[in-house]
Design brief:
The protein folds into two domains: 186 residues, NAD(P)-binding Rossmann-like Domain (Rossmann fold); 133 residues, UDP-galactose 4-epimerase, domain 1. By secondary structure, the chain is of the alpha/beta class. The strands form three sheets. Strands 3-2-1-4-5-6-11 form a seven-stranded parallel β-sheet, sandwiched between helices. A three-stranded mixed β-sheet has the order 7-10-12. Helix content is 37%, strand content 19%. The structure holds NADP nicotinamide-adenine-dinucleotide phosphate. Pfam families: NmrA.
């Protein structure tokens, strides 16, 4: 009976992270899902709209009046705010505000898509400061101070998307030796975590299904912590394509062309006339320094227990997805043109 199903509101449901979450929530017909999006006609909204039990709800996630409409009739929420679109300050505001609205509307469970508190893990050394990590982590600290009744809360803390290996982390051909692919990253010998997004969606579903364990839990997920040297070796073993890891400096990284303009501000959908916004160079320097110095960690024993079917290694993921190092679209923001929309203040 559709009317007896719990209904979950998903914020950010059309994104790279949100799509597998929505699919996992909708699978098995236990829950109805409402996806809030600015554009019901986008390719990802259209892909989700045909799934039984999924409702597309048009509106802006960062607007109080829209949220008040979207929360009506909702039992649970999964919230992935978009720090790249709105910047750290607004991300903190909206994460907390969405929690408050969830309480006001009497929801049973609030699941927040978190990231690592890079600054705090790095003892507030400014070399680790990263707006899109710190912003979500400050919301996580706020949530961690909230009671677990009458509404449960959980945080699903992620890391770099494995799928990013086809976009922002994709290899490029060696200009001196075109048969060889170069995986370049400013990581030294560090092991860096990557998460397969299908599994990410299944962890979110586990949180919803298992409140007795997930209430009050900050779960740090990844598929594997891997050095780029090992990643390169796995790639060559699986594909037969020659590849090398190139350890690069941050300056070299910003010249790779991953970002059109490293001096543009992070916050492509908000006014740039805000001195708290980071430049891409500032933001991603903190980001890579955090991974290079291995400030974060995950409990893989716990992850194996929660999701025994999870993909357990980058090599397994490469085989499963027939990864060949080719570029493919991953982030909706990039499909929508955000990569070239950065504007200097
Ligand atoms: N890239 C990574 O490896 C990674 C890893 C972990 C966490 N994250 C975090 O995930 C968040 C981004 O989500 P994603 O990775 O799913 O990105 P994405 O694929 O680019 O999708 C962007 C999402 O943000 C939504 N959105 C709402 N208002 C927006 C606005 N004003 N401008 C742009 N988008 C807006 C979009 O919804 P509509 O367009 O449908 O309205 C869409 O669902 C960021 O906070 C980032 O820090 C990223």
């Amino acid at each position: 009976m559709p009317s007896s199903k719990g209904k979950i509101l998903v914020i950010g449901g059309t994104g790279a992270q949100g799509v597998p979450v929505v699919k996992s929530f909708a699978s098995g017909s236990k829950y109805a899902v409402r996806v809030l999006t600015r554009d019901a006609s986008s390719s990802s909204a259209s892909e989700l709209a045909v799934i039984p039990g999924v409702e597309i709800f048009e509106g802006d996630s960062y607007d109080e009046a829209t949220l008040r409409k979207a929360f009506v009739g909702i039992d649970y929420a999964f919230v992935n705010t978009n720090g790249f679109a709105i910047g750290e300050k607004a991300e903190i505001y909206w994460g907390i505000r969405m929690y408050e609205l969830a309480r006001e509307f009497g929801l049973k469970h609030f699941i927040y898509a978190g990231l690592e508190y890079a600054s705090k893990l790095g003892n507030f050394d400014p070399k680790y400061r990263c707006g899109h990590l710190d912003g979500k982590a400050k919301v996580t600290d706020y949530l961690s101070a909230q009671p677990t009744t009458p509404m449960a809360w959980s945080v699903l803390t992620s890391c770099l998307y494995m799928e990013g290996l086809s976009e922002v982390l994709a290899p490029h051909p060696d200009p001196n030796n075109p048969g060889t692919l170069i995986f370049a990253a400013p990581l030294g010998t560090a092991k860096c975590p990557l998460i397969y997004l299908k599994d990410y969606g299944d962890y979110a579903r586990w949180m919803l299904d298992t409140p007795a364990r997930s209430n009050g839990l900050v779960l740090h997920v990844a598929t594997e912590d891997i050095s780029w040297k090992d990643l390169t070796a796995a790639f060559t073993e699986v594909t037969g394509i020659k590849s090398v890891y190139k350890d690069i400096t941050l300056d070299e990284y910003f010249k790779l062309g991953v970002f059109e303009d490293p001096e543009a501000k992070v916050g492509h959908s908000v006014t740039r006339n805000d001195p708290t916004l980071f430049t891409i160079r500032e933001n991603y320097s903190g980001f890579w320094n955090t991974w290079k110095d291995e400030l974060t960690k995950r409990d893989y024993k716990l992850l194996d227990e929660i999701l025994p079917t999870r993909v357990k290694s980058v090599k397994e993921w490469m085989k499963k997805t027939e990864y060949k190092g080719k570029s493919a679209p991953v982030l909706k923001d990039y499909r929508d043109g955000a990569r070239t929309r950065g504007v200097r203040q």
